[in-house]
Amino acid sequence: MPKFTSLPTNLIIDMPGYLKVNRYVLIAALIGGAAVSSCKTKKEAETLTVKTTTPNGTTTTATVSKDKKEGIKKFSDVIPEKTKVDKGLFNTYKVENKYYYEIPDSLLGREMEVITRFLKTPANIKVFTQQYGGEEANEQVWKWERHDKQIFIKVPSYTIRADSTSDMYKSVKNSNLDAILASFDIKAYNKDTTGVVIDVTDFYNGDVAAIGITDEIKKAYKISGVDNSRSYIDTIKSFPINIEARTLKTYRAGESPTDNSNAAITFEFNTSMLLLPKTPMKPRLSDNRVGFFGQTQTDYGTDAQKAQVTSYIHRWKLEPKDEAAYARGELVEPKKQIVFYIDPATPKKWVPYLIAGINDWNAAFEAAGFKNAIVGKEAPTPKEDPEFSTEDARYTVVRYFASDVENAYGPHISDPRTGEILESHVGWYHNVMNLLRDWYFVQTSAANGDARHAKFTDEQMGNLIRFVSSHEIGHTLGLPHNFGSSYAYPVDSLRSKTFTDKHGTAPSIMDYARFNYIAQPGDGVTHFYPQIGEYDKWAIKWGYTWFPGKKTPKQDKETLDEWVKEKAGNPLYYYGRQGTMIDPRLQSEDLGDNAMKAGAYGIANLKRILPNIETWTYQKGQDYSDLQELYLEVLTQFYRYMGHVVTNVGGMNENFKTYDQNGPVYDFISKDKQHDAIAFFNTQLFTTPSWLINSPELSKFDNGVMVNRVKSVQTAVLNNVLFPPRLSRMYDNEAKNGTKAYTVADLFNDLRGGIFTGGKPDVYKRNLQRAYIEDLKSLLTDDFKGIPGISSSQLASYGMTPINMVLSDIRPMVRVELKLIDSRLPKGGDPITAAHYADLDARIKDALNPNKPVINLPASTGRALTLDLPVDENIEPGNGSRP
């Protein structure tokens, strides 16, 4: 809607024929097709009714207020003399129902990190991830800048940069214009004219995405905007380096998670505006051989003959109090300690364990030369510190959510200029305890009598909480998951009490190396937990060691590179990234250096646990819900072991290196190991795992779906083995390594030997044989087109290796395999067996002759890797994790 403020309000324009026309009519006509009624009354003079005809002929009508320019007033006219001032970053004032900021000239143009968090949310809000009080809604950087008689909030971008001394600096600035989030009229100058006063009431009350709900929530609940009559600013408080604004906003909604009769959803928010350091911290360049969260920028200011991508790690700013002592190799306290406060809403009995998990990281910081670098504390009471707030951006907090979500996560907020971590709000969901109970029972109770309970003691649960606390705190220190860590320990070492007492289950607590499922009864193992290990200490040393002097990040990296090369080849210090399906070492929930051997030990323990679940979890007067939950957890754990093994087929080792390091970055898994993987499936999965079908216990909860559950495991694993990107890598291996490679022909031969064994097939084997034929059929008919918007090189990096199915060798091999199976199908037998083989024959003929249908059959199993049972999806909110 145009503003009609460019001409004096009393102007009357003379037109030809001496026709005097009101200026609004003229201006509206000039903008095309608008007719405006003339002003008749005082009330009407304050508003405009505008009718506009759109190009398609639709007419819309709107009533708008005239924009009254009041000009810049005296300070006392805007802020009455006795108004209470809240001094801080900006002095803030409340005059009746309006809030004002007094912005000093010295802070104009300064960058400020702005974090908006939910304070309170309605029940049942679930949009992709749950939204609870304390969780982050949005994060931005703001700059307050003045132009003429207005103040603007600008949102800078840090995706491209160049040093201010570089020839490219001006060009980069011209191509990186800051977006404008909001504008404010200057209401007054402050008393000594060193700053300006603006009214921020409408801004904080308004429907501004940066300080309100996400687009996902708006779409999910059909939200049309803020209802100002049901919204207000609660408080705005100013502190030395930050401002905290608490607001309540009611949104008009077509749907509601609680009560549609209100036609609305209400949230409470806290928006923290934190001044970024005037002198940015010296950044540390990242290295993909050492795991840290980080940020990337395209740097046009380097001497490289191309646009250089520069990556900085995320880390807290730690500097020694005594630089001379630090230089002598003594442990020194940092100038500023990392302090985590525990949410007052946390049940008191868990607070000591959460604090212990935080303090455990001091052992790692000692490797970087610091003592007492990090500490966990209980949040102060209102009496001890009335200004303390868990939403205050100055404080780092572990937030406790009353939620049935089985999760915890450890995000952090960092300076986008340098990667300096500024604060963190760890999210801790109450029901993570149920997840820990299930895992600890299913993974250790065969060899661990203390885990054989439906409910653990407070000490047992507290120790599990301590482990998860340490893991999540690791994320807040900048450490991502290290999925390659657990591969460092030989499988049989995890059966040693001496070894596990010293090392736990993996060299890094940042791996998803849960509890020791390998230890067998009689081994004497009593330490089943992960712990902060050798890799964690090494990573903290690499990321947090302080370098004196004025060396550049590039010069620091020269020293750090030498450290990395010293550790290269030692599996204790190996970092394996999360998210790729290409390397069998980089997996979730696995232990040891051989998935087949580890899985066999794990299954042996599951066979001991399953028939004892009812006895070990007996609860007088309770129903069988715990029995059902843990029984299905056994099935899920069994499926995990299958997943650990399948990655060996068509797998490659990934060892990132630089030019000055010898050896390959990628090399294929050995032929023998891939053969062993299929042999494992033939023994443990494709031979019906009848031990999973314990009729006495199943009869307490299963209502006829167990056959389908077992089928789901078998067919999902088979589907994964025959995944086209996996077969593509196998052909690549054969082309490069000839007879040393495990080929697709070898794979089909080994699968056929396990799936089409002699004797009468039971219901599970019949399901499996049909699934194999349908998977082969899919390879003949389905194309693998990758993922739109993601390049082939990116797909390959994550194991989604591209392949042209039409031109590949897969289809000729599949046709031969189908014909071979068909030629060997038995004839006759009992009615179900005869029908089964006749059906397989029809399916094969249909696959080989798709234009000549033989029988109507169910749709292809397709290429989706799905499973009809609870699985650990490892979904990560923010940059944290499922614990």
Automatic annotation (TrEMBL):
Domain EcxA zinc-binding: 454-757
Domain DUF5117: 134-321
SUPFAM superfamilies recorded: Metalloproteases ('zincins'), catalytic domain (SSF55486)
Protein name: Zinc-dependent metalloprotease
Alphabetized Pfam families for the sequence: DUF4953, DUF5117, DUF5118
GO molecular function, one term: metallopeptidase activity
Gene3D superfamilies associated with the record: Collagenase (Catalytic Domain)
CDD domains: ZnMc_MMP_like_2
Domain DUF5118: 72-121
Top-level taxon of the source organism: Bacteria
Species annotation: Mucilaginibacter gotjawali
